[in-house]
Amino acid sequence: MQSISYISIIAMISIIYALLHVIVTDIFEIFEPSKDRTLVISNISGFPYFYGIASFMFEGNAVQLDIYSQMEYSSKLFTNSLGQALLFSTGLIVMLGSLSYAAYGQYTESVILMNLKPSTMTYVVQIFYSIGILCSYCLMVTPTFKILKAIPIYNKIPDFSIGRIHHLKTLITRALVVIFCCSLAYKVPNLG
User: What pTM was computed for the model?
Assistant: First the structure.
């Protein structure tokens, strides 16, 4: 977990940079609109889509038990830390969604970075955001490997080495999970 936490720091910095750029761009677009947007106050038919996005945003909760078991004073700090993190995440999601909708109206894209006008800065932000997503993927997929190790059929597959490359069963399994996730992200619209 400790080595993954360093990757997680890179992910946070990259995503924070991208989100700050989106916020600034949205604010400029609100005050100087480039399109004649229409804002609808409420639309109940979008609620299931919102719920799906909100659930997806909190998918990291699969890592909570690992974090809890690694904390020194887990019983005192975990509940407070988790509550604050969820409150902050919810506030950030609502703020970004509201700002983007106020800025672009019916032209709002489902992937927030697609709202940005093509420019060098937009491409830099998209690269930073992609780096953040890729780095956070390492943390999100960790429970999957723990579950695999608990499956009796998986444990019956012998581990092997070729030359100096050891633990090939683990490397191949992880590569297959990554390929599966990438294929799914490519096939499902806007998931990638």
Answer: 0.59
